[in-house]
4-hydroxythreonine-4-phosphate dehydrogenase
Amino acid sequence: MALAPIALTCGEPAGIGPEIAVKARARLGQDVPFFWIGAPRHLPAGTAIREIDDPAEAAAVPTALLPVIAHDFPAPARPGLPAPENAAAVIETIARAVDFVRDGAASAICTAPIHKKALKDGAGFGFPGHTEYLAHLAGTERVAMMLACDELKVVPATIHIPLTEVPRALTEEVLETAIRLTHAGLRRDFAVAEPRLAVAGLNPHAGEEGAMGDEEIRLIRPLLDRLRAEGMTISGPHSADTMFHPAARARYDAAICMYHDQALIPIKTIDFAGGVNVTLGLPFVRTSPDHGTALDIAGRGAADPSSLIAALQLARDMARNREAG
């Protein structure tokens, strides 16, 4: 049985989202069926589209056309200049995608980048980003952000907070949640029957037995011992500077890191254009390209769709794994 198509939200209309959606359709064709939710007039001039009323119609749309479920926006899209009047509609497209996937009309959601300040200024958006808003819509309390490419999967236990706040935010509950969501996500969404996890330390050299911090001894190691006793295959805490070379990566399926840059620097070094943002813990599949709205190059035709293409392909594969499981 064929999967339902993927719902691709428009993201910030003044950014590169509309442009890379068109480029992704041109490259993927019917290999990854998806439909775009947004205002047709926000797409690049000359884009060939087919407006549809039902996601099920997307599969029959010729490859040369972009299947579009039209959503009304009050203002035009001016490249590089987000319009506050459009903020509420951007948020509505995300909620609409969730409705589609909950109803089974879509197999997964892929979200184009949003401009969080524009949403806050224009619509009082009260969430730090997509992840938290999707968790709210799904009624899910605990989610985690995974960054994935072919060579590496990483999950930061803490995300968008100042580095000075990480030691205080890194509690046993926070770290355990990240580990358990990663373990479950690898099994359900990536078809890894027996996940192997590697956990970084917080401090240089993983604290060097307390010489450079005691979080590894006091917090991380006891938690890992407890999870290993439950049967998890989990190693660490490791010195983060030795975790990401090829031989080290071959020994695990995903790495759990303690803070944002510890996780994102290695994956963006390994595959800057092809990384994908995955939300673990949701009752549906959600992926996103691992970049922002790129307002500085919007409208120039120069945006690279590689990360969006990878995000759509991964969403398809994850949806298949969930269905098979």
About this structure: The first helix runs from residue 17 to 28.
